[in-house]
Write a structure and sequence with these properties.
Blueprint (H helix, E strand, L loop, with lengths): L28 H14 L3 H14 L10
Helix pairs in contact: 1-2
């Protein structure tokens, strides 16, 4: 390693994501297992998969159809 590095021509990383906010959320066990299985298949952590899915829903303004019978 060098003692000093020149960052005068450095650019921000265009691939760096937006900061994430840590929250507490209750998700049923079956749903967590579903995303954990997908995580094994894709190599993406299950938490990131859940985030990607929710982000996609928000971007597409998806609405959940809920009926109480």
């Amino acid at each position: 390693m060098r003692k000093e590095y020149d960052f005068s021509k450095a650019r921000p990383n265009p691939y760096a994501g937006k900061p994430k906010k840590q929250i507490t959320i209750r998700i049923d066990e079956e749903t967590v297992e579903f995303f954990k299985k997908r995580a094994e298949e894709t190599g993406i952590s299950y938490q990131n998969l859940i985030n990607l899915y929710l982000r996609d829903c928000a971007a597409k303004s998806k609405h959940l159809s809920v009926s109480w019978n």
